[in-house]
Amino acid sequence: MLQQYGYLAVFVGCLAEGESMLLLGGFAAHRGYLELPWVIATAFVAGVISDQLYFQFGRRHGARFLMRRPKLRSKIDTALRLIEQRGTLVVLGMRFMWGLRIALPMAIGMSGMNARHYFKLDLLAAAIWSVVFASIGYAGTHVAAQWIEELHRHEKHIVAGLMLLASCILLRRWWLARSVAAPGSGGS
What we know:
Elements: H1 2-15, H2 19-30, H3 36-67, H4 70-93, H5 103-110, H6 115-153, H7 155-186
C-alpha cells in the first residue's frame, strides 16, 4: 500500500507544510518502500506548485483577503518587511522559516518582486529544501537503526541497570516510609 500511494502522500503532504511528510518519505525510502530520488522529485514539484499558487493568490487577491483576516495580517506584514530588506535571501530561505510557510509566498506575491525572478529563486529553494529534508529522513533512519542495534547488543546490561535503578528507588522509598513511621511508633 505504501509503495502504491506513498508518492501521492508525499505530494499531498508537501503541498501544505511538507517537512514532516518529507522526513517520513525519506524514512520510507531508507526502508525500501519508496525510492529517495522520487521522494525528492515529488516533494520538489509539490513545493513549487504550492509556492506558486500562494504567490499568485497574494498577487491577485492578497489585499482583499487580508482585509477580512486581521490575524494573518501581522504575519504578512512581518513577511513584507523581511522581503523589503532581503528579498532574494527570503525566497531562498523561506522553506526553512517555520510559521511563515504560507505567508511568505503570499507576501512575496503582494510585493513588487518580479514573478519570473521569484519562480527561478523558488525552483532553487525547493530543490535545496527537498534534498535536505528527504536526506535527513533517510539518514536519520540509518542512524536510528544503528543506535537500536547498538542498544540490542547491550540489552542485558541495560536491563540489569534498569532493574538495579528500580531496586534502588524502591529501597529508598521503603527507607523513607520507615523513617517517617519510626518517630510515631517509638514514642508509645
